Amino acid sequence: MTKTIRRSGERVRWWTYVLLGLAVFACLFPLYWMFVVATTDTATATRLPPEIVPGGNFFHLAGLVFTTVPFVRSVVNSLIVAGTIAVGHAVLCSLAGFAFAKLRFPGRNVLFLIVVLTMTVPTQLAVIPQYMIISSLNWVDTLQALIVPGLASAFGIFWMRQHLSTTISDEILQAARIDGATTWQIFWRIAFPLVRPAAFVLGLLGFVTAWNDFLWPFIVLKSPEMYTAQIAIKALQNSYSIDLGLAMSGSFLATLPLLVLFVFVGRRMVAGIMDGAFKG
Amino acid sequence: MTTTLSTRRAQAAPAGTTSVRQSITERIAPYAYIAPFFLIFAVFGLVPLLFTFYVALFDWNPIGEHVFVGLDNFTRLFADTRFWDAAWNTISIWLLSTVPQLLLALGLAHLLNHARLRMAVFFRMSMLVPYITSVAATTIVFSQMFDRDYGLLNWLLGFAGVEPIDFKQSVWGSHVLIAVMVTWRWFGYTTLLYLASLQAIPRAIYEAAAVDGAGGWKQFRHISIPSLRPVIVFTIVTSTIGGLQIFTEPLLVSRLSPLTCGPVRQCQTLTLFLYEQGFGQFQFGYGAAIGVALFVLVVGLATVNYVLSTRIRPER
Amino acid sequence: MGKLWPTWDAFIETGKKYTAATKKAFVDNAGTSVFHQAVNQGPQKYYDPSGNVVYSTSPQVKTAFDLALKAVQAGITAKQSSFSDGWSAGIGKDQFAVISAPSWLLEQIRNNAPGTKGKWDIATIPGGAGNWGGSYLAIPKGAKNPKAAWDYISKTQSPQGQLAHFVVTGALPTTPSVYKDPKLTALKDPFFSDAPTGTIYTNSLLGLKPFYIGPDSSAIGQELLNAITNVEQGKGDPAKAWDSALANIKTAIGK
Questions:
Q1: Which of A145, A174, C19, C254 is deepest in the core (most CB within 10 A)?
Q2: C230/B149 Cβ within 8 A
Q3: Which residues of B touch C84 (CB under 8 A)?
Q4: How confident is the model at residue B9 (pLDDT cuts 50, 70, 90)?
């Protein structure tokens, strides 16, 4: 890591804290509000002036979330999808990043350029043929339809390549080769352990993206037992009725796992994102 | 993007005992390592994209006939007022959600980039909280806060004597509402990217500028901004690609008519229009034609933005 | 109460008096409570008996559309689209006095506004006969067990099956043979001031004139409804609403 050098050491003005405080408030308030509404009934949620402290209805509504939709099942589905993608993403992108950073092979630079260029290809607009492909694989309404497309990404390869080329010196690899290690052994025993922190953050980003994905699961999942948490929150409200407290309760419960995770790994995520591709 | 290619490479020193078979394995190893990505991208990215162009030439019913109709879908599309409305909505929402977001992130990154700032970790972590909140949850909570009758925002505006604003029903209101949700979710992430780049600028450059008599604002404009060029280009291009394909927010913001984002399609984006035609009306061919149009729009605007943003240079 | 509004015009007049006296809205919205009801009361809607689309010339459609606009311009609607958050909340807050409610909607009113028990009554709809539409049951070709599905449908949709459903959920039977059944005629709803729900709803059904519906009926209805809502929410020009609705239908269904 390069030494961090910041703006010259003048004093921090008071209004800097005020502005940053406002930004923090803007970031956190909607989540607080979600919790407040998740603890009241609809009559309270639609009263003016609004209730701005949490009510006592949380456990009742949370219970309703679990009985209205198969919510436990949805969270488990989300964990399976996001967990598999996180691990697969971390390993497959590290592997490809390793190849691009540390191995010599014909076509390397061209192939890497292609990887970078694919980042600029908008693919979400191709959902109709994507659905046809999933359908012809008989994967409609299955979790692998969500997992497989998310296992590797151009961004992840770019990111891991960056880390691998700056973290691992060629001398170590050369020494390993002379000792008779195969390429796989070099990757698995030497390179991967050294970039594990970066791969961990990449896995986290993959986890968050997969956990929060909406469009694709919305298209390929059909039966309530296959729903991910995000689709389950959508299912809590329909065109004919909404129970605001219930909807917010579901949203809050679907966000909670990530918030808990964030408390433990947030610092590393921040560091990971900042340590990414654009330094120096 | 500033990547440093490793200049010295490991020289493979095959020991004399290496079997032929092993050396073949070794030679294909790099290709095997990068193959998963290319396979996944081909099957779920490239092929569907190319297939979109093909399907767009048909009257394609998912469980019925596929009739080749040439460019009919496009003729119909260009005469379809719903398409032009959706295209305008898409561009409007994208502009409203991208421009303020990037400027806000730039300002916040500047504020955070201070050696003696206290609670720096707290500020940074808080700003990443919206990023881990799902779009679905974000939409539900913001819709409630911006509600015409019982929303917190209109209640507060009431004290300033403002009549309740019906965000969801009006064109500009629904665009602003969606833009606020997108901005909320992404500005912290963008701020961290900008901050990382700012921190990489050598202090000596600022000191030299200070000696030359350049104040804070001048330093910001003439040193910080040009140094941020690669990351600004990156965020502009990615937010163009992402912002023009917005789908979930408009779908969830209007519970009564989700596929059109309201009774008069006031916030129906092109991706939502595509979904409505493809999966609501089962007109895969027409939906694919919308996809092609969206592709042209995204690639066009991304290119224009790329060209424009790479022209950021230090002013002399 | 139904005597106050034998016709839709009388309904609107009553609404004006109510709104003038109470300063509150009379009816929840013009789209579903006026247009959607009035359009279903004629002998012909969007299709003629031979399956041609006639929405643009069918007199019933234009009449219902104009009635809805008239209600909007009379200022008697609460501008709360049916089933919206504000609508659900408004039921419990006396925001409006009247809702066009088919029998299955009663359950929702009970749930949305438990505190309004005894404050509602049920009256016959202006024009006499009501029909909000209906649902369809289909067995897909790929069904795993079509026979069991058919048996289930036959059982639940038998006259006695439908009657049992009505008593519990309010889904109105389509089988006139049970309309004289004491289980139905004796039905009263304490939530709605002991209104005789069984007879009010079935009588309104008997007065109904059948009309043909076609594959695009719901798309046509939706566009017309959208045009009214747009005027009601203050965004659309009432003078252009009909033409723009017709244009939107043409784009949507190509006819």
A1: A145
A2: no
A3: 255-256
A4: very low
* Cβ-Cβ contacts under 8 Å, C86 against chain A: 46
Whether the CA torsion B178, B91, B53, B80 is positive or negative: it is positive
pLDDT tens track for C195-210? 888 888 888 877 777 8
Shortest Cα distance from C110 to chain A (angstroms)?
Answer: 13
Is residue A165 less than 8 Å (CB to CB) from chain B? yes
Model pLDDT, residue B206: 82
Q: What is the pLDDT of residues C69-115, one digit of tens each?
A: 999 999 999 988 888 878 888 888 888 889 988 888 888 888 778 88
Nearest CA in chain B to A207: B132
> Which one of B264, B266, B273, B283 makes the best mutation probe of the C interface by having the most chain C beta carbons within 10 Å?
B264
Cβ–Cβ gap C92/A241 under 8 Å: no
- In a mutational test of the A interface, the residue from C80, C81, C85, C218 whose CB has the highest number of chain A CBs within 10 Å is C85
Architecture in CATH of C2-135+191-253: 3-Layer(aba) Sandwich (3.40)
Q: How far is CA A217 from CA A227, A251, B181, B248, C36, in A?
A: 8, 17, 21, 11, 34
How far apart CA B250 and CA B214 sit, in angstroms, is 46
Cross-strand bridge partners of residue B313 = none
Q: Tell me the two tokens of residue B47.
A: 């092929």
Flag if B33 and A98 touch (Cβ within 8 Å): yes
Q: Which residues of A touch B133 (CB under 8 A)?
A: 30-31, 212, 255, 258
- Bridge partner list, C27: C77, C98
Contact residues, chain A, for C89 at CB < 8 Å: 42-43, 46
Range of the domain at B232: 82-309
Chain B residues touching C85 at Cβ < 8 A? 144, 147, 149-150, 255
Which distant-in-sequence residues (6+ apart) come within 8 Å of B286 by Cβ? B73, B76, B77, B277, B278
Distance between CA B220 and CA B110 in Å, rounded? 8
Dihedral sign for Cα C179, C177, C101, C67, please. Answer: negative
Buried b (16+ CB within 10 A) or exposed e, B154-186: bbeeeeeeeeebbbbbbbebbbbbbbbbbbbbb
- State how far the Cα of B207 lies from the Cα of B187, in Å rounded to an integer: 29
Q: Tell me if B12 is assigned to some domain.
A: no
Dihedral sign for Cα B291, B292, B293, B295, please.
positive
Asked if pLDDT for residue B309 goes beyond 90, the answer is no
Among B192, C85, B228, B189, CA closest to A45: C85
- Contact C115/A239, CB-based, under 8 Å? no
Q: What is the pLDDT of residue C207?
A: 74
Q: Where are the domains of chain C?
A: 2-135+191-253, 146-183
Each residue of B169-182: pLDDT tens digit?
889 999 999 999 99
Subunits next to A (3 or more Cβ pairs <8 Å) are B, C
Above 60 in pLDDT, residue C249?
yes
With CA atoms as reference, the chain C residue closest to B167 would be C233
| Nearest residue in chain A measured CA to CA from B210 | A8
Instruction: Give the residue from chain B lying closest to C253, CA to CA.
Output: B281
Distance CA B108, CA A23 (A): 8
Q: How far is CA A205 from CA A1, A159, A244, B182, in A?
A: 20, 12, 30, 18
Residue to test with chain B: of C235, C240, C255, most B Cβ within 10 A: C235
What ipTM does the predicted assembly reach?
0.89
Q: Which CATH number fits domain A14-274: 1.10.10.10, 2.130.10.10, 1.10.3720.10, 3.30.1450.10?
A: 1.10.3720.10
Q: Which residue in C has a C-alpha nearest to residue A240's C-alpha?
A: C83
Q: Is B113 among the domain residues?
A: yes
Number of domains, chain B: 1
Is the CB of residue B168 less than 8 Å from the CB of residue B254? Answer: yes
Q: Are A129 and B51 in contact (CB under 8 A)?
A: yes
